[in-house]
Amino acid sequence: MIQPAFPIPFSDDGTPPTEIRLFTAGVNATSKGPVKWTARSAALVQAEYVARGVEKFADYEHRSLLPLDRQQEHATLAAAWYRLDVRDGALWAVDIRWTPPAIEKLTAREFRYFSPAVEIDPKTNEVTKFVNFALTNNPATHNLPALVAASEGI
């Protein structure tokens, strides 16, 4: 059963969230087909995260994933820094610290959504590696809530 996304809690002043649920436990619908977040996914992602010992970063439009010869200037600039956490079987980005340019872009509604970058086991459709998430306006994951509301009071 595909689980729908639930709204991200916004601060009273409309600032971007400090926590984002990246994947629900089970099947997550995407435009690239179903992606499964399982106990195996959690174990693999947590093990790599702990072994690397560095915080994760968010980028813009997955530009940091482009081959070096195709990257534009500033392609690897961070939009945010965060830690990973697994809660009730779901993967979360927590303690998100947005950079000033990212806050400005989100507040101006230049970006409204996020998109996780992962590696998938082609046989099981399970997430086997979490790379990062990007600010985007065209997320592959279905039913994502916006990072900031469309207008005041929403």
Highlighted features:
154 residues, alpha+beta, six-stranded mixed beta sheet, two-stranded antiparallel ribbon, globular, disordered N terminus, disordered C terminus
Q: What's a quick, concise take on this entry?
A:
The protein is an alpha+beta fold. It has helices spanning 39-52, 100-107, and strands at residues 20-23, 26-28, 35-37, 56-60, 80-87, 90-98, 113-120, 127-136. Strand 2 and strand 3 (35-37) form a beta hairpin.
Task: Indicate the topology.
Layout: E1 20-23, E2 26-28, E3 35-37, H1 39-52, E4 56-60, E5 80-87, E6 90-98, H2 100-107, E7 113-120, E8 127-136
Parallel strand pairs: 4-8
Antiparallel strand pairs: 1-6, 2-3, 4-5, 5-6, 7-8
Q: Can you characterise this structure?
A:
- With 154 residues, this protein is of the alpha+beta class.
- Mean pLDDT is 82; it is low at 1-10 and 149-154.
- The strands form 2 sheets. Strands 1-6-5-4-8-7 form a 6-stranded mixed beta sheet.
- The protein has helices at 39-52, 100-107, and strands spanning 20-23, 26-28, 35-37, 56-60, 80-87, 90-98, 113-120, 127-136.
- It contains 2 helices and 8 strands, in the order E-E-E-H-E-E-E-H-E-E.
Whole-number radius of gyration? 15 Å
Strand segment tally: 8
Strand content: 25-35%
Helix/strand/pairing category: alpha+beta
Sheet having the most strands: 6 strands, mixed
- How many individual helices? 2
Mean pLDDT equals 82
Strand order of the largest sheet: 1-6-5-4-8-7
Distance between the termini: 29 Å
